[in-house]
Structures are given as structure tokens and as C-alpha cells.
Amino acid sequence: MASHTVTTVWKENMQFETDNPSGHKVLIDTSEENGGNNSGLGPKAMMLSSLAGCSGLDVVSLLKKMRTSVNDFKMEVTGELTEEHPKYYDKVTVDYHFYGDNLDEDKINKAVKLSIDKYCGVMEMFRKFAEVKTTTHFHNN
């Protein structure tokens, strides 16, 4: 069974530096109103970025295998936090946006569906604690 280990080190004030198993590093911090310097990514927002990154990697890989190209691709992920502590995302929306000429909507929809339903482990983790909704948008030039 595979496992991952990250090391997170306190740098100063409310700032931490964390790595991932490949050694890349990122800063974590909080807003000034919460005592930080706003010099890094917030932990909860990083979760949303992880969701987009995981699904995005799937989609791009699948589109390559399907020999389908797009000019541009972005995802907007919105998480709604609960009112009570500990606050967590109970509703998450993922909007996939594809841009290009003569987009093959069937293949793109298939790639997104495979990511959502089969390949994206982060999506599956989010489903354990949040209602996840997804929408695909096509922007033909």
C-alpha cells in the first residue's frame, strides 16, 4: 500500500513551510486579521486547489489519450464553509471551463466524467464530508 509523508516546519509568526513527497515546497499562512502575514496559501483553500489539481491532471491526461485538444482549460472550485467550529467545506462546486475551436464536447465530457467518477482520489475524499457538484462549460472561439 502506498503512503505519502510531508514535513511541515514552522517558519515564523503563523507561517509554515511544507513539502510534498517530490520535495517541492509551499508556504502556508493565514490572513493578517487572524494573526498572520498573508504570505502563503491558506490550508483550507489549498484543499480546493488540490481538488482542482487532481481532477485537472486526470482530464489533461485523458484528453491526450483521446487525441483531443483544447486551447485553454481552467477550473473554478468554490467551497462553502459550515457556520460552526470546526469549520469545514460541506458544499463544493467544481466548474470546468474549456476553450477552443470546434471543441469535441463528447470526448471532453467523457474525460471529466472519468475523473469525477473513477480517477480523482481527492474528489472521492471530498465526497466523504461534502456535497460535490460539477459543471462543464464550453467556450468555442
TrEMBL record:
Gene3D superfamilies, per database record: 2.20.25.10, 3.30.300.20
Pfam families: OsmC
InterPro entries xref list: KH_dom-like_a/b, OsmC/Ohr_fam, OsmC/Ohrsf
Domain of life: Bacteria
Full protein name: OsmC family protein
